[in-house]
């Protein structure tokens, strides 16, 4: 309970969900610390994540190996960060990770384009995309290096009015 | 200074740690840790302890297996303490006083770590292990701390504190479970996004307010009257008149509120004007009056308080329009959405919003054909004002007509309910009409929505006030009629009196059956009945609209779609959207009627509570079963205060007529708690005169003097003016500060252009960002390495950073001060001149401008 924002009951429920996805792999009993991981394919099919355009990124950023398979710890961690009670700073860190597609610790133009394409299902024209990306970088980039570092990102996100309300998942 | 203290403390703790862990690990420690402990303690205060922690905890982890996180803290503690109890018992015997104090500090620190653990961006495994270690540490040394005289007391205190924490946690869990309909609203929210849920939250809030009002009225007025007042049939005002008795039990009573219901405690007329009732000497008229006032007082207070809270929140967020595109990019996706249709809509709305702002951006300056647009807007407003006037006149006309109907006998169902039907129809058809007209104006949708809300509100309000004016006419008529009846009854009683006086000298009034006594029309009850009827018909219309407009339509579209010539789901009828603005306005309007009517019909609040309760379930069901989510995104957080503003306005407007009637209309002479008095507020004077000592009455008469009231009002006006001026000044200062911040930002931009800023925060991040590919395949024993490797890397990265820092002196000092958030301190050393300890590390000599702070250099270590 100290590590997450969940109550005991909620964690048990989470475990129920986790168990449901692969009943034959996941043991019910966690007292002996089994080393079980579920592949990304199973997890992104959860109804909570299914519609999310960034589902692969979410799962990848929370998985320990970066490949997308989640142990139960990671699973709980993921929903803890995405829960309502998590503070803004914590959420910002993970949001940055999620939007950083090529994991180079910067959100560069390519990342922005990918984000935009996922958000709009590639319905914008190429000029529009470049325009938007340029605008974003112009707005948020403080150090003028043409991409967003974490400081830029945090600065920007800390002022966003609906970041907290939109960046969470109920489970 | 702070840092120095920190350093010395850490040094001590470091050696302490070394001692214990050495004993524990039995020379298992590698040279690295020792070196860190000895060398690093001077320069890099924090690193060493954490390293030792890691090692000792690795050791521990082998002994006690990983548990599930859900398990109780206590359980964990117990396990940990069993494992560590054996090792520490001998070592702590020789602790001196200052060591104790130091330990105390350390324990406190660990506790702080535990409490902030959940907001650390670490991997779960790391979190778990650090947590367990810290808990074990606290557990172990808490016992040691109490070595002195107060050991037992200390232990007891600790146990109690732990129990208290657990209790608080349980209580919190309990509290979240107690919030009504939380799950239901969450379900709706997850399907329809936060905007629809905001309506249900508003509804829930409304329900809470009404529940309080209901408690007030029922507890203080209705229940005392029912328990202690005179029973039904004992006096004329509590009896159905002879002429109506035949139809008093008809089924239509339920709809009309005539018959027995009219003469029940639900309405004003039933109450007696006896000063005190029952053995408690409960002053019912006084209570009635005070409750009537406190209903308004409480509502005003609640609305204003929640408005102020909302305003605080919205200003705290701060509205910066610097980041339009960035926010759209990173925060527009609502992670709650779990429904494919909602997701489709969300994609569409995001796309359109992007397109919109692109167009805004491109055409922010040029605006062609402004004259046509202006003309269209004026035209639209004229049209809408015409509509409003028309609807107002229609209602006035209908109410007038209904007055003539009410004098006639044998009127049909339609004639009797014409007013309600017309009002409901207007409420149903005018908003879409307005929407059509508003299409002419071509406003931005958000502004358009506000206009639309304002217009519908004006329509409702106009209707309500026309209704009230007509009612007032009615009341005046009734008052005239009442005078006549009063004379008749007076003469009748007098006649009886005279005749009896003629027969015998004993003046006993004749036993007249209470049902036969002629009585006045009792305008208060009439008004109450009007309001109750209006409310009930409003409820029915709302429910039927939902049932027909949403449910039947959805069924039709869903099932007839199989055999129809065009696609019903995508084409013309399609599914209904949930109309947030209409529903909220309906709720607000309804509440205004409740406020107005509750003085004349105390039972109205009960009806409203039932209505809100049922509509909570009914609308939840309807939304989930037959609605589709919106295409237009409606931000709930911002417009919440708009709703509250409407609520406040309607509260004020509904206060006016009630206050008018209380202050300047004479109450009916033969019904209600104030009968026989000239004005309703006389009841206060009466109470003051009869129940309080004389000097209180004197004080009140002084206070009520205009000479005192006018200065008081003046003073209030002045205070308002002053506060207003102050808030304006604050606003200006705020704007000034914002401007300054903007300038600073520009400056920063320019400065940063010189050099890349390293960010120690990234070190924390790095832990997560670097995919730890090896770890999965490695067996369990390798965990030592796994947990160690990130820490071994971070000093390296740190060093790189500080080198970069020192290379660019322009940003060096500021960068360090600026980029060190407080919680980093617990794990990371402050980046102060670290040069020596790792000479072997590759230094970023060539390019201090390099964009990457640490990871690139850290990588070769893997």
From TrEMBL, chain A:
Keyword match Cell membrane: yes
Main location, first listed in the record: membrane
Taxonomic lineage from the root: Eukaryota, Metazoa, Chordata, Craniata, Vertebrata
Descriptive protein name: Calcium and integrin-binding family member 2
InterPro entries: CIBP, EF-hand-dom_pair, EF_Hand_1_Ca_BS, EF_hand_dom
One GO MF term attached to the UniProt entry: magnesium ion binding
GO terms for biological process, alphabetical: calcium ion homeostasis; integrin-mediated signaling pathway
EF-hand domain segment(s): 50-85, 87-122, 128-163
Record Pfam families: EF-hand_7
Domain of life: Eukaryota
Organism whose genome encodes this protein: Cuculus canorus
CC per GO annotation: cytoplasm; photoreceptor inner segment; photoreceptor outer segment; sarcolemma; stereocilium
Record's keyword terms, sorted: Calcium, Cell membrane, Cell projection, Cytoplasm, Integrin, Magnesium, Membrane, Metal-binding, Repeat
Protein location: Cell membrane, Sarcolemma; Cell projection, Cilium, Photoreceptor outer segment; Cell projection, Stereocilium; Cytoplasm
Regions annotated as coiled coil: none
Automatic annotation (TrEMBL), chain B:
Span of domain TMC: 522-637
Organism: Cuculus canorus
Recorded family membership: Belongs to the TMC family.
Compartment list: Membrane
Biased composition (Basic and acidic residues): 1-12, 31-42, 49-74, 741-750
Top-level taxon of origin: Eukaryota
One BP term from GO: vestibular reflex
GO cellular component, one term: plasma membrane
Principal location listed in the UniProt entry: membrane
UniProt feature, compositional bias: Polar residues: 770-780
GO molecular function terms noted in the UniProt entry: mechanosensitive monoatomic ion channel activity; voltage-gated calcium channel activity
Protein's name in the database: Transmembrane channel-like protein
Region (Disordered): 1-97, 741-862
InterPro entries in the cross-refs: TMC, TMC_dom
Membrane-spanning segments: 205-227, 286-304, 378-399, 419-440, 452-472, 599-621, 642-663, 699-723
Keywords from the named record: Membrane, Transmembrane, Transmembrane helix
Pfam families reported for this sequence: TMC
Membrane topology annotation: Multi-pass membrane protein
